[in-house]
Amino acid sequence: MSFTLPDGRSLDSKFWREGKSIIYFGFSHCPDMCPLALNQFARASLILGPLAKEFRFIFITLDPERDHPALLAGYVRQFPGKSLYALSPSNDSLHQIEGLFHVTSKKVKMQGSYTIDHSNFIYVLDEKLHQIKAYPGGISSVELANQLRVLAKSN
Known about the structure:
alpha/beta; Glutaredoxin; six-stranded mixed β-sheet; two-stranded antiparallel sheet; 31% helix; globular
């Protein structure tokens, strides 16, 4: 799969093997679910303190048409996390990853623009890219941090 980082570089495949990945799928123009989930997501990384280094907190856009890498860089800076990565997939990679995680998304036209209706989950992957947990996007930052502490201790 192919992803672009906010600085325009392609993501190296070794990135995924450098720690557990905490992933949220959304888009920067989302009015409600995405900012809430990313805020909780980012705050959980702060609550974890040094333990956060064991995880990669990743936002993957479901709207690579609008969410170009530079826009995503600015978008994720709005959230308080220690290391929040923003990835823009190629269209083929987006379809692949939606299938792997059973992410649902649908472009919905509205006055001169569009929005994207999508599922709302936070996924945890191990270093071999196996999904080990999924949490609802509305999970509190404290609960998410507690759950991630348990996962970190299980190593």
